[in-house]
Amino acid sequence: MGQELDERKLKILKAIVHNYLETGEPVGSRTISKYTDLNLSSATIRNEMSDLEDMGYIVQPHTSAGRIPSDKGYRLYVDNMMKEKEEELSEKQQEITEMKEFLTEKVEQVEELLQNTAKLLANNTNYATVVSSPRFTKRIKFIQLSLINEDKMLCVVVMEGNVIKNKIVNLSKNIDGETVLKLNILFNSTLNGMTIEEINLGTISQITGQAGEQGELVRRVLEIIAEVAGSGEDMKIFTSGATNMLKYPELSDNVHASEIINVFEEKQQLETLITSSEEGSAGTGIQVYIGNETPVQNMKDCSVVTMTYDIGDGVQGTIGIIGPKRMDYEKVVENLKTVKKQLDDAFQNNT
Amino acid sequence: MGQELDERKLKILKAIVHNYLETGEPVGSRTISKYTDLNLSSATIRNEMSDLEDMGYIVQPHTSAGRIPSDKGYRLYVDNMMKEKEEELSEKQQEITEMKEFLTEKVEQVEELLQNTAKLLANNTNYATVVSSPRFTKRIKFIQLSLINEDKMLCVVVMEGNVIKNKIVNLSKNIDGETVLKLNILFNSTLNGMTIEEINLGTISQITGQAGEQGELVRRVLEIIAEVAGSGEDMKIFTSGATNMLKYPELSDNVHASEIINVFEEKQQLETLITSSEEGSAGTGIQVYIGNETPVQNMKDCSVVTMTYDIGDGVQGTIGIIGPKRMDYEKVVENLKTVKKQLDDAFQNNT
DNA sequence: TGTTAGCACTCACTTTAATAGAGTGCTAAT
DNA sequence: ATTAGCACTCTATTAAAGTGAGTGCTAACA
């Protein structure tokens, strides 16, 4: 198990994975013999492959078929690749600017930006994509309460990054315009610039204190602000390219297709995916789930590569690419990196 | 072509459609011979079927297979069914109350309501569903402009039915809080209760006149109000049950699946579907597209049944059910009717 | 000892042929 | 006008045979 692979085995494994990524067919010893620069006969390769299989890196769909990378094999491949790509920081300048133009063109609201990002990525990669809206460790920028009629009040919260949330509150007792005005001033002077987390008991009692007679109402509004702006509860998720998944034969059969498409329809499942990937990606921000590693059972025959994008301080949103296990990991990671950069920029300039 | 069908042919056609809806297999003469109460031998049925085929109501997938309803056949069947069901107004009381509870439970915002509706319908029918948000022939209830910082203004428009729209405006020149306050009063006193259509040149010049110095800004805001609240441009569409489509063998092959799922992902295509179905459904509000009749090419092998739901005056939103051509039209229509009623109620109480 | 050539063997996939069965169309009898 | 009967057609199923990619193993080789 823990046994290290020697140089040659590694090379062969890589070749197998690589070839399989391209063709989607089990790859045999003869192919590898020609494919690599090792100058080994197929027989030797066979021996090595046999070893690799014993070690669990590759699998035979049936006797007398070529080999296919196992999840473990993919994993090794990906980890290795990552290490190599680490400092390259790929300068596909042309593609980058192209993206930049696309992304910043006429995008005024965050949601549109994210949806566009998802679409762009999906088109570029031919896989499916997920983009989550930023989690709001962000600060409150502005609060606006407005009386709509006697018993209904509109509560709008603008967060940094120009994400706007709103909700209508049913009032238990009538209040007048003057009061609303005061409340607005109160809330804005107290809460602007704060994150949800920073609103602690102290702040709350301070506010309710100042509100005097309207303490009850203030408490309700605070709840609503928390609900409206708070946590990842109603994290929005944008997807694109789900149909791309049907292009890969190993996923296009009825069972798989249903399962996968379903994930994209019930975006809730994607939420868990994103949440857990945010937790998992410590270092580079890149997280790769291969096959069964994924937290979403329906995707056990896919691979998912996610990357978090930053806005200033603190982890924020996540971009994910979902494809068959034999997806082109290199390309995917590159794409993610460039897009991440774009998003970071977009939010930087926009905040 | 124009030739009427006699009683017997009609009965046979109905039997064929009915049987095919159930089994999904071509139906042969012997089956019909037993299936109906006509007491005719298979040979006779065969002759009749041959006629029906000549008239274009049924088709043979290949020689020596049974018959399948053509689009024309389905059409006749549906039209006939509709006529019969017209005044029944089906009282599946139990199911209705069940729905009612589900729909009105904890739904505070329109969008949630519609999404729930879509989901409910999809589950009930095992087909895919589309629900469009109401088109805003509706009136403006409330407008709120707020200064976020020196050069950004938030513009929120609440429509009747508590649909909230918002947008951030970049200001060309700075204005102060006082001005914003005045603008708010101006807009609200002038525009509240109006529909977008009613805001004509007269109103506009009236407002810009009163705004004096800020005329330029006012004009921009008006544009934004129109854009934000206006027309069906950003009509929202909710869908559910897309994966249900994969359950029907005639649609689950790769080509069809891709086409269909794609429609649900790119909701834009559904927009055209909804738009044109609103135009088409004059009388009962029910519109049935069978096969090629559909305005969305990707769905040429499906049937779509849509129904508009009302809120007070004027046509509003649309609910649609999408399934295979051999969908259970009766059930679908019944479901639509009950849901329509629920939605109508929900909006009545909520406005 | 590591590498290689060679060969028998396995197993999925393809092709072909044979067969069964559902359903039709037509004809002749009722 | 209806029906029984029969030849015919065409799909779907099954079985048999053949193909080919790929393996594992052995024996020879450097």
Describe this structure in words.
The structure is a homodimer of 351-residue chains. The first copy, chain A, is built from 13 helices and ten strands. Chain A is of the alpha+beta class and 351 residues long. Chain A folds into three domains: 2-82, Arc Repressor Mutant, subunit A, CATH 1.10.10.10; 91-133 and 235-349, Beta-Lactamase (2-Layer Sandwich), CATH 3.30.450.40; 140-230, Enolase-like, domain 1, CATH 3.30.390.60. In chain A, strands 7-3-10-9-8 form a five-stranded antiparallel beta sheet, with helices on both faces. In chain A, strands 4-5-6 form a three-stranded antiparallel beta sheet. A two-stranded antiparallel ribbon of chain A has the order 1-2. Chain A is elongated and about 90 Å long. The model of chain A is unreliable at 87-97 and 102-108 (pLDDT under 50). The structure holds a DNA duplex (30 and 30 nucleotides).
Helix count of chain A, per DSSP? 13
Number of domain units of chain A:
3
Second-tier CATH architecture of the largest domain in chain A? 2-Layer Sandwich
Mean pLDDT, all residues of chain A = 82
Strand order of the largest sheet of chain A: 7-3-10-9-8
CATH class label of the largest domain in chain A: Alpha Beta
Strand percentage of chain A lies at 15-25%
The number of strands of chain A is 10
Query: Which ranges of chain A are low-confidence, i.e. pLDDT below 50, for 5 or more consecutive residues?
Result: 87-97, 102-108
The termini of chain A sit apart by 50 Å
Characterize the largest beta sheet of chain A: strand count, sense, and whether it forms a barrel.
5 strands, antiparallel
The arrangement of helices and strands of chain A along the chain is HHHEEHHHEEEEHHHEHHHEEEH
Instruction: Name the overall outline of chain A.
Output: elongated
Give the assembly state of these chains.
homodimer
Q: Structural class of chain A, please?
A: alpha+beta
| Percent helix of chain A | 40-55%
